[in-house]
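Handout, section 3.2

Students often ask what a structure token actually looks like in practice. Rather than define it abstractly, here is a full record for Anhydro-N-acetylmuramic acid kinase. The first block is the sequence as you would receive it.
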Amino acid sequence: MLAVGLMSGTSLDGVDTVLCEISGQDESTKVKQLYFKTYDIPESLRTKIRKCCSRELIPVDLICSVNFELGYLFADSVKSLCKDANVKLEDLSFIASHGQTIFHIPKPYDDYVPSTLQIGEAAIIANECKTKVISNFRVMDMAVGGEGAPLVPYSETLLYSEENQAVALQNIGGIGNVTVLPKKGDTKKVIAFDTGPGNMMIDEAVRTFYGKKYDTDGYYARQGNLISSLAAELKEHPYFNLEIPKTTGREMFGEHFTKSILEKYHSCEPNDLIHTFTWFTAYSIAYHYKKYLISEYGLKKCIIGGGGAYNSYLLELIRNEIPEVTVMTQEEHGFSSEAKEALAFVILGNQTYHRSPSNVPSATGAKKSVILGQITYPTL
């Protein structure tokens, strides 16, 4: 059957939209990517999303409106993809939509309970595209004691497990996250967690200084130098003291955090700040590999996906930090770095479609395996 996966991540690069052919379920799942494209988020909507994700007072009418605005944007992305791929909307069996994360609280603090909020109204997508929509994947995992993230380990286990060696699947989107797949037959469990910032802090600095969305291939970072005092400060970030499994997001490494650093180090050269943020992403990945993965799993292979895979300077820094690990990209492995997460939600949606579980408790900390997501049916 045909299905579309939608992913709009913390980096707000665009709406990743993938058309797949998928069959089977559980270990018999077979999936083939047919067409992929990233559709722009209008700058006016991007600004609204950033405001919704900030830790400042947010008017509830803004979140209410953006929920529907994103629903229409996601629906338009599906329509455009199907038109580009010459596929009829009625031929789709389902659309799997991750939604746009507004806030994520993996652990309780103050008077707040563990919770998560993704928006992008599924009813709008279902009505506009005339097919069922599977969405809101994270909440059921949290209902049974998990952190609601990461969810991609299920799809990665199906697609990337190897007979003779462990493999790390490192995604570098707005946030960095890794899934470690033990070699087949190993008694160790699949583990996954967020490694810290991905492109988020880099993008914020580039947007502030140059008015651009991201640092293309590390252009600005290459021209800068490490700010040693800032590097030392970043190494002391409390996220590094948390034990795995753990998750993070814009609430910890987003605009508020990054702007506070830019203000504190306002006398430094812009490219030096961008360089240091790029180094910090590489450092945070290497720190967790050295602490948890390289010795424990005999890890020698890492496959990188997400937008960060296209920043060759970032990859160079990662390779310098962990020379004992072969670092390659999804493209070198025959997949698409950009499509990886959208495709993952097609697989998760397929599990929900068949009433089968798809969380990985050893990765999220959930008490048991559960069926993820909610199904919204189109109007008749």
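Discussion prompt for tutorial groups: The domain at 156-324 is CATH 3.30.420.40 (Nucleotidyltransferase; domain 5). How would you have guessed this from the sequence alone?
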